[in-house]
Amino acid sequence: MKISWLLFDADNTILDFSSASKASFLQSFEDFRLECNDRIYALYKDINSKVWSEFEQGEITAIELRRKRFEVLFKSIDILGIDPSEFSNSFLNNLVQKSESYSGVSDLLSSLRKKYKISLVTNGLKEVQRPRLERLNLTKYFDSIIVSDEIGVAKPDQKFFDHTFQSIKNPPPKSEVMIIGDNPISDIQGGKDYGIRTCWVSNDSTNESSSISDFTIRNVNELSSLLDTN
């Protein structure tokens, strides 16, 4: 298997989004002097997942996403007098500050960039993704960074991948490209539909979708061994 270009998803692939999201959510509730508990956060995660799915399918815009997930949450738990857009701004600011990469990611990217072109491909929001990468000193490892909110289209839309291929000079053939990500739909199915190789980062979870990846690893640090043996 010849691979020359690696496309990395960001959240829960190289960045520990789950931990950062919860910490940021709790911090924002504290900032607005609201009480929070595990039930409320679990409800938010369910709402957030559904709203992001709507966004990835092109049913709502990124601007609508920012507000809707908190608007729906506040209605569900009877929070009045808090502007969902203002709360969203607080949450996103906290997310920049509380995000961390997984252990070993910097060393992994530093090693891989000696042999491969590397790009970041994320369905994130523009006020979060690049500032996080800068704060964590990860920007330098990527040949290109594609953020859905900046280009107006998200994975798994094929236009997202078209833009990705236009982001570097002389991109290799699709057979030499692999996407590495945790989302079976946006990363794996999106990559398969575009004709590139796929590597699912399971984070010890079960793939309940119908999208089967070419490769599966438990965490991103297993990628080096995978590439060395294939």
Write the layout of secondary structure elements.
Layout: E1 5-8, H1 17-31, H2 38-56, H3 62-76, H4 84-98, H5 105-112, E2 117-122, H6 126-135, E3 144-147, H7 148-151, H8 158-165, E4 177-181, H9 184-194, E5 197-201, E6 215-217, H10 223-229
Parallel strand pairs: 1-2, 1-4, 2-3, 4-5, 5-6
Number of DSSP strands?
A: 6
Q: Which runs of at least 5 residues are low in confidence (pLDDT < 50)?
A: none
User: What is the CA-CA span between the terminal residues?
Assistant: 6 Å
Rg calculated over all Cα atoms: 18 Å
Averaging pLDDT over every residue, what do you get?
95
Q: Describe the global form.
A: globular
The helix/strand order is EHHHHHEHEHHEHEEH
CATH architecture of the largest domain: 3-Layer(aba) Sandwich
The structural domain count equals 2
Sequence of strands across the biggest β-sheet = 3-2-1-4-5-6
State the CATH superfamily name of the largest domain. HAD superfamily/HAD-like
Which range best describes the helical content: under 10%, 10-25%, 25-40%, 40-55%, 55-70% or over 70%?
40-55%
The number of helical segments is: 10
SS content category: alpha/beta
CATH class of the largest domain: Alpha Beta
Portion in beta strands: 5-15%
What can be said about the biggest beta sheet?
A: 6 strands, parallel
Q: What is the CATH topology assignment of the largest domain?
A: Rossmann fold
